[in-house]
Model the fold of this input.
Amino acid sequence: MPFCQTPTTSESIPPCAAQPLLQKLRPLQIPAAHNVLLATPVAHHTPIPVPIYWQEQVKAGLDQDNQLGVLEPVPIGTPVSWCHRMVVCAKKSGKPH
Done:
């Protein structure tokens, strides 16, 4: 069974067998801590500062991921339902992770 995909351009894609099921889905909820808590989508719009000495490396990594199609920029003014802050921490080698 093929997966339904969101069109990335203005062209439409043919419907797949799972599409009627996807239309009946409720808002996303992720079970956490043995179904005690449920996560609901949250959008954060304020960034966590990246240390100055890592900014060039982090920017280069983001640009590379963008070119590979791993990430894509969200146009300004586009509403989002789930957006987490990027957190940069140090690897054992001292490079950003």
Remarks:
- The first strand starts at residue 30 and ends at 32.
- Helices lie at 19-23, 55-68.
- The longest helix spans residues 55-68.
- The mean pLDDT is 75.
